[in-house]
């Protein structure tokens, strides 16, 4: 998985998730760290049950929108050191390798390797960074929007530090 190109990784993941019955409504392959695939919101419950079966359905009640997606992080690449004002996030490493840096302040802690299948909950405002390891990492992600009337979006990002100058 480490030697595959970004194009190959996206093609493999698109084929795999559509074979599982997910409808993709968007993608972004231009991120310097990899990219993501967006799953149709009408399948949010199916997505959550598929990738987060241990979450009690009551835990997600009241969240009209979960914004399900798959993140692909390239080997040795990293997302911004960032946080969000209008959402918390729940991640599961579903394939490959990745590490996570997290903190409640702007000071970065050392990265911790994620175990395959590990679920991580990131609070609204918690600083975090997904870091690629020696192989591509694939993460299933859902959002818990803080305000139903003003749900989070891709612009809800405060970059504290970014290796790509964004």
Structure description:
- The chain has 166 residues and is an alpha+beta fold.
- It has one domain (6-161): Jelly Rolls (Sandwich), CATH 2.60.120.
- It has three helices and nine strands, in the order αββααβββββββ.
- Strands 1, 2, 3, 5, 6, 7 and 8 form a seven-stranded antiparallel sheet that branches. Strands 4-9 form a two-stranded antiparallel ribbon.
- The longest helix is centred in the first third of the chain and has 14 residues, at 6-19.
- The radius of gyration is 15 Å and the shape is globular.
- The two termini are 28 Å apart.
- The mean pLDDT is 93.
Characteristics of this structure?
single chain; 3 helices; two-stranded antiparallel ribbon; alpha+beta; 9 strands; 166 residues; globular; Jelly Rolls; 7-stranded antiparallel beta sheet
What is this structure's SSE topology?
Elements: H1 6-19, E1 24-31, E2 34-39, H2 44-51, H3 57-60, E3 69-73, E4 81-83, E5 87-103, E6 112-113, E7 119-122, E8 127-145, E9 158-161
Antiparallel strand pairs: 1-2, 2-3, 3-8, 4-9, 5-6, 5-7, 5-8
CATH H-level homologous superfamily name: Jelly Rolls
Please identify the top-level CATH class.
Mainly Beta
Radius of gyration: 15 Å
The termini sit apart by 28 Å
Write down the domain tally. 1
Report the principal-axis shape. Answer: globular
Could you spell the SSE succession in H and E letters? HEEHHEEEEEEE
Q: What is the mean predicted local confidence, pLDDT?
A: 93
């Amino acid at each position: 998985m480490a030697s595959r190109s970004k194009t190959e990784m996206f093609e493999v993941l698109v084929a795999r998730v559509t074979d599982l019955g997910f409808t993709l409504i968007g993608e972004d392959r231009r991120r310097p760290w990899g990219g993501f695939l967006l799953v149709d919101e009408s399948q949010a419950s199916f997505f959550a049950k598929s990738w987060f079966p241990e979450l009690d359905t009551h835990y997600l009640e009241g969240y009209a929108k979960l914004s399900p997606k798959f993140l692909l992080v390239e080997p040795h690449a990293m997302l911004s050191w960032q946080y969000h004002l209008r959402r918390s996030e729940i991640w599961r490493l579903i394939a490959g390798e990745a590490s996570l840096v997290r903190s409640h302040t702007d000071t970065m802690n050392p990265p911790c390797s994620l175990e395959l299948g590990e679920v991580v909950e990131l609070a609204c405002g918690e600083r975090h960074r997904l870091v690629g390891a020696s192989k591509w990492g694939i993460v299933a992600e859902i959002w818990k929007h803080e305000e139903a009337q003003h749900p989070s979006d891709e612009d809800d990002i405060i970059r504290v530090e970014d290796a790509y100058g964004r």
